[in-house]
Structures are given as structure tokens and as C-alpha cells.
Specification:
By secondary structure, the protein is mainly α. It is built from five helices and two strands; from the N terminus they run ααααβαβ.
Length: about 120
């Protein structure tokens, strides 16, 4: 009995993980032709030293991961902040991508909402 419950729990967990990943992939693939906004690229070039030092091919991978991050997250102002600027989105997303850069299967899927405080 315990083994059956454990197996069902494990299968349920696997279903949720696969389903969540599949939904994210579907959303991303539907919008895959979207490019990173020029404003975001300019902010990265001005303020993000990791991005600045990447070779051209790596910058393309970085921006693709950044588009995926931005499309799958909701940025919410908190703590008296009234709006989310392009600079905030670009720097937060760029930093998140930097943390996972070089790790192809790590996309931070469990973070749906990014709370931004002043």
C-alpha cells in the first residue's frame, strides 16, 4: 500500500515537472522569433560587464536565454515602487541569465513572478 502511494506521488511529481517544462517550452517556441528589445541590448552593453565581455556567438545565446526569461516572468513593483523600467527588466534578467549561463537545462522555471523593490 505504501509503495503504491509512493509510486503515485512520484509519478504525479514527474507529471507536474514535465508539464510545467512543456508549457514553458510551448510558450517560448510560439514567441521564439521575438528578438531582445534594442533598449535592453543597449542597457546590457552599458551596464552589464559579463555581457560586454562575451564573444559575439555567446552574446546571441545570452540574448536568446534572456528573451525566454523575460517572456516567462512577470515583473511586479513592490515596496512603494510604482513602475518597472526597461533598465530594471534588462539588468534583473541579464543577471539571472548570467547565473545560469553555460547550463543549458537551467531556466529558473519555478520563478514565475519577480518582485522588484526600490
Amino acid at each position: 500500500m505504501f509503495g503504491t502511494i509512493l509510486l503515485l506521488g512520484f509519478l504525479g511529481f514527474i507529471f507536474v515537472v514535465i508539464n510545467h517544462t512543456w508549457i514553458d517550452s510551448l510558450i517560448f517556441n510560439l514567441k521564439a522569433d521575438e528578438e531582445l528589445k534594442l533598449e535592453y541590448k543597449l542597457i546590457l552593453l552599458k551596464h552589464h560587464s559579463f555581457y560586454q565581455k562575451l564573444p559575439h556567438q555567446s552574446k546571441a545565446i545570452f540574448t536568446k536565454k534572456m528573451v525566454r526569461f523575460i517572456l516567462t516572468k512577470e515583473f511586479v513593483p513592490k515596496g512603494g515602487l510604482t513602475e518597472i523600467t526597461d533598465e530594471m527588466v534588462a539588468l534583473i534578467s541579464g543577471t539571472a541569465v548570467q547565473l545560469t549561463f553555460g547550463l543549458p537545462d537551467i531556466t529558473l522555471n519555478y520563478f514565475d513572478t519577480i518582485a522588484v523593490y526600490p
